[in-house]
Automatic annotation (TrEMBL):
Its EC number is 1.4.4.2. It comes from Oceanipulchritudo coccoides. GO terms for cellular component: cytosol; glycine cleavage complex. It catalyses: N(6)-[(R)-lipoyl]-L-lysyl-[glycine-cleavage complex H protein] + glycine + H(+) = N(6)-[(R)-S(8)-aminomethyldihydrolipoyl]-L-lysyl-[glycine-cleavage complex H protein] + CO2. The lineage of its organism: Bacteria, Pseudomonadati, Verrucomicrobiota, Opitutia, Puniceicoccales. This is glycine dehydrogenase (aminomethyl-transferring). It comes from the Bacteria. Signal peptide: none annotated.
Length: 999
């Protein structure tokens, strides 16, 4: 098959400087030799000679040989063709709506897709504005004042809302949940619960109505009394029936507990269902839901977009401070310009560590960007039409199918909206298979969701145009013939519907696309220049990865499609599963986790299951270095390892100290293992560590932990330094996560979606979550492990991101994985060598210690004093230097972490020697500026769309929404990163000084 004829690339790879380079490495062989000479190494292999031999693979992992660009295209087309998307009535756990035409053009805006989380707001106004639009659109749909885009999908959003309710109530620990929520959500909740202290009581559905049994809900509230922190109920339940949300909300109000409603935002347009602020007398306290279908197609289940909202008004000022995730708020810069910034960050893991409200680190940011654009594209009339179309098609299907003998509505007296539940006299699987043979995915067999109702088929409808006339022949083939009148369906009650119009703006797609393109210009991207954000691995994201993920065979397949029709997706998951066994040297892999932080949680939950299985559930201590990523601490607490004193000894998290060279202090480590050996659950260690130094004693650490009965978690955030070289199995690792949005080129999307793959040792394989994919007689089959801890995702994880990582791995091949990581290490050492004589480095006693992929610079005491003398407080010096990077056309390094006065730099393998030289020249010019013109740092940044943002004031007066009737007018670049990149560094220097004088 000619790839160009059937699935043409929407770009010309030859016109993209890095796209067709081998392994996406810009450095030529001459560059590599020159850089090796600079760092005093004679080969790439020599960069790893300081690592003990027992930590290294004897040879490259057994991966496929790399494919050419053309071969890669053909391979992906063939794999996507192994799937068979059909006209689908599945919906259920993931609604399937039409993808708006603006989505592809917005997804092609690289400065939006590849930018990092907007921690530097002055150079992130583009991303912040897209998030603001999403928040405001969702606020208009739901009536809620505070919406964020941080939750992975509906399941985890529901659990996080439950945890929020418990934190808010302080003394109550029980959550009552309607069994009307989607079963996949229930499985995730039950997987996350152990160790948290949250108690759950499930309230069944009424067999007569198919809705939540109100009498049992009332009884549960009365029985739980003051122990109840909240209740969870859906607006439309897992049978497709509309719940009595007014009664449920008022029950909660009367019991003085928190109410959490599970909603579908696609149903809330003008003419649709009423918003959750109007349930009962006062509405509900929190909302959760799935919003993936407002942005993209089913994509075999992910990435999702977990909707999360909380009231934030005069009556509800403080609940938001107990919620997870990131919010964008209104702000002003120091010159009084209106702008946007992330607010309320002091709740988050990177600041609060073990006191954080959640371990969530990434956002579902780019899904929110797309969803916001898609809602704008639909507008007021489009949202109304989407609801009407879904409802009309459901009614038409009932009209056609209820005439068939043996087919009837399962609950004719209960109200449905856009999903119909049919009671079938015969076999539902037989019907589904007959439909599959006719290229129809008929729906879902949900006979097990409620007792005593026999065989049940649920069919879902959306705004996708369906050929309903194709349904009757399928039913007739199975023996169902028209012999009766259609069922009578009453209209939706006025009390169930929205009154009045939403007030969404109406605009043309071309206007929306141009607007989002203009927002992209306000960001900086790894495409523009070296993006030195330490510990974040901001490398080049190949265009072809996104093309592969957009192939219809992948995007259009529903995660609940018959397995026979999803073989392409399962094939891909199988291969990437097996490849990561080779890459890590570990026995087992799960592809289900959807972020690095969730990967950590998977690992620690596996530790708990392992210890419980051995009768050692008393192990309640986790050792974590003080310099670890904030997620490590937050993850341990989320899993149940809360720090407290028991019999004079600490439980939960015990901190490990660092030696003067930044590595783990082995004397301190041995002492703490000895103290806690009988209660040691495990250790969490980043390797290479957050100073960019390889923990050469890692194998010894593992042995000491294992001898004490504990397990070893390696934070794999820095795998870009060691993938293909270090054998984690030989190092004694029991669990590790790989951040696909770091090492494996998933675009950061302004903060997410992230993604992860977790590898485990043999001892943890029986407990793996989700499904293992096995190859049996030529077919790919999902299999549960015998002691599986459950699921961390409602379906298969972020499948579209697995496609991207898979595509990258095929392009790298066996040799490319090692070459990629080695050049990343070489690039960092090369920059370190150029800068270390001018700058002090941290840790101070590690000057001679080989750096891996990143390193930390600081300023001399004289330079700190110099800046203090011009009015820059010492505590703000490093952040101001970070702002200076923005004016030189770069994103800032990681500032003030893990060293308070440090700048952590990670250049990655994506840039040529000349690009790294320019970067180093700029960093040296910054030092010159600090010494010759220190007053400049009182005013930076000077070229960004806005001046330095007043984040303190934005957090003092938090504003999280406005009613959007037109698009916010962004400030324009004074000098864009692209323009700066064309200037000599000396000229950039002079322009900054001149701008400072004029300002």
């Amino acid at each position: 098959m000619s790839q160009g004829q059937s699935n043409p690339l929407p770009f010309n790879p030859e016109s993209l400087p890095r796209e067709t380079l081998r392994h996406y490495i810009s450095a030529s062989e001459g560059d590599i030799k020159a850089m090796l000479d600079k760092v005093g190494a004679d080969s790439l292999e020599a960069l790893y000679q300081h690592i003990p031999g027992n930590c290294l693979f004897p040879e490259a992992p057994d991966l496929p040989e790399e494919l050419s660009y053309e071969e890669l295209q053909s391979r992906l087309v063939e794999l996507a063709a192994e799937n068979r998307p059909c006209e689908s009535y599945i919906g259920d756990g993931l609604p399937n709506y039409a993808v708006m035409p603006v989505v592809d053009p917005v997804c092609a805006i690289r400065n939006l897709t590849t930018a990092y989380t907007p921690y530097q707001p002055e150079r992130s106004q583009g991303t912040l504005t897209t998030h603001w639009i999403y928040q405001c659109m969702m606020s208009q749909l739901t009536g809620f004042e505070a919406i964020n885009s941080s939750l992975y999908e509906r399941s985890t959003a529901t659990f996080e809302a439950m945890a929020t309710a418990v934190r808010v109530s302080r003394k109550a620990d029980q959550i009552i949940i309607s069994e009307g929520i989607y079963p996949g959500d229930r499985e995730v909740i039950e997987t996350l619960l152990p160790g948290t202290g949250i108690q759950v009581k499930w309230v069944p559905l009424d067999r007569a109505t198919g809705r939540t049994d109100l009498s049992l809900m009332r009884a549960a509230l009365e029985e739980g009394a003051e122990a109840v922190a909240g209740i969870v109920f859906p607006q439309v339940n897992c049978l497709g029936l509309l719940e009595d949300v007014d009664a449920l909300a008022d029950l909660t109000l009367a019991s003085k507990t928190k109410s959490i409603a599970v909603i579908d935002p696609a149903l809330l347009g003008t003419g649709g269902l009423k918003p959750p602020t109007e349930y009962g007398q006062k509405g509900v306290d929190m909302i959760v839901g799935e919003a993936q279908h407002l942005a993209i197609g089913p994509n075999f289940g992910g990435p999702g977009l977990g909707l999360f909202g909380v009231r934030h008004n005069e009556e509800n000022k403080n609940t938001i401070r107990q919620t997870p995730g990131r919010y964008v708020g209104k702000a002003k810069d120091i010159s009084g310009r209106d702008c946007l910034v992330m607010v309320l960050s002091t709740r988050e893991q990177h600041i609060r560590k073990d006191k954080a409200t959640s371990n969530i680190c990434s956002n579902q940011a780019f899904l929110a960007t797309i969803a916001g654009a898609a809602i704008l594209s639909r507008g007021e009339s489009g949202m109304q039409k989407a609801f009407s179309k879904a409802r009309e098609q459901a009614l038409e299907a009932v009209e056609k199918l209820s005439r068939l003998k043996g087919i009837q509505l399962a609950f004719p007296e209960s109200t449905f909206v856009n999903e119909i539940l049919l009671s079938v006299d015969g076999s539902v699987p037989e019907l589904i298979e007959a439909a599959r043979q006719a290229s129809i995915h008929l729906g879902v067999d949900i006979s097990d969701r409620i007792e005593g109702k026999g065989s049940l088929l649920k069919m879902s409808f959306s705004d996708r145009e369906m050929d309903l006339d194709r349904l009757l022949p399928v039913f007739e083939q199975c023996g169902y013939v028209a012999e009766k009148e259609s069922a009578f369906i009453s209209d939706l009650a006025t009390s169930d519907l929205r009154s009045g119009a939403l007030g969404l703006p109406e605009m043309e797609d071309e206007e929306i696309i141009k607007y989002y393109q203009s927002l992209g210009e306000l960001n900086v991207s790894p495409d523009d220049a070296c993006y030195p954000l330490g510990s974040c691995t901001m490398k080049y994201n190949p265009f072809i990865n996104d093309w592969a993920a957009s192939l219809p065979g992948f995007t259009d397949i529903h995660p609940q499609a018959p397995l026979e029709d999803a073989q392409g997706s399962l094939h891909l998951l199988y291969e990437i599963q097996e490849w990561f066994k080779e890459i890590t040297g570990l026995a087992g892999i799960t592809t289900q986790p959807v972020a690095g932080a969730q990967g950590e949680l998977v690992g620690i939950k596996l530790f708990q299951a392992y210890h419980e299985d051995r009768g050692e559930g008393h192990r309640d201590v986790i050792l974590i270095p003080a310099s670890a990523h904030g997620t490590n601490f937050a993850t341990a607490v989320m899993a149940g390892y809360r720090t407290k004193k028991v019999d004079g000894l600490q439980t939960g998290i015990v901190l490990l100290e660092s030696a003067p060279d930044g590595s783990i202090d082995m004397e301190d480590f041995r002492a703490k293992v000895e103290i806690y050996k009988d209660r040691l659950a495990g250790v969490m260690i980043t390797n290479p560590n957050t100073c960019g130094i390889f923990e050469t004693c890692f194998a010894e650490i593992s042995k000491l932990v294992h001898d004490a009965g504990g397990l070893v978690y390696m934070d794999g955030a820095n795998m870009n330094a060691i993938a293909g070289w270090c054998d984690l199995g030989a190092m004694g690792v029991d669990a590790v996560h790989n951040n696909l949005h770091k090492t494996w080129t998933i675009p950061h999307g302004g903060g997410g979606p992230g993604d992860a793959i977790v590898g485990v040792s043999e001892r943890l394989v029986p407990f793996l979550p989700g499904f293992q994919i096995e190859k049996r007689e030529g077919a790919y089959v999902p299999v549960r492990t015998p002691k599986s801890i459950g699921s961390f995702h409602r379906h298969w994880g972020n499948f579209a991101h697995k496609v991207r990582a898979y595509t990258y791995l095929l392009r790298l091949g066996k040799e490319g994985v090692r070459r990629m990581t080695a050049v990343a290490v070489l690039s960092a050492r090369y920059c370190f060598e150029q800068l270390r004589e001018a700058f002090p480095t941290l840790p101070a006693d590690a000057v001679a210690t080989p750096r891996m992929h990143e390193f930390i610079l600081t300023l001399s005491e004289e330079d700190f004093v110099r800046l203090e003398q011009v009015g820059v407080p010492r505590a703000l010096v490093i952040t101001r230097v970070g702002k200076l990077f923005l004016d030189f056309g770069f994103h800032a390094p990681t500032v003030a972490w893990p060293e308070t006065f440090g700048l952590m730099i990670e250049p990655t393998e994506s840039y040529s020697k000349s690009e790294l030289d320019r970067f180093c020249e700029a960093v040296l010019a910054m030092l010159e500026m600090i010494r010759k013109h220190p007053e400049v740092l009182a005013k930076v940044p000077l070229f960004t769309p806005v001046d330095r943002v007043d984040e303190v004031e934005a957090n003092r007066h938090v504003t999280l929404k406005e009613s959007l009737t037109t698009l916010p007018e962004p400030h324009r670049n004074r000098l864009s990163p692209t323009e700066i990149g064309k200037l000599p560094i000396s000229e950039v220097f002079e322009r900054i000084v001149e701008a400072s004088r004029q300002g």
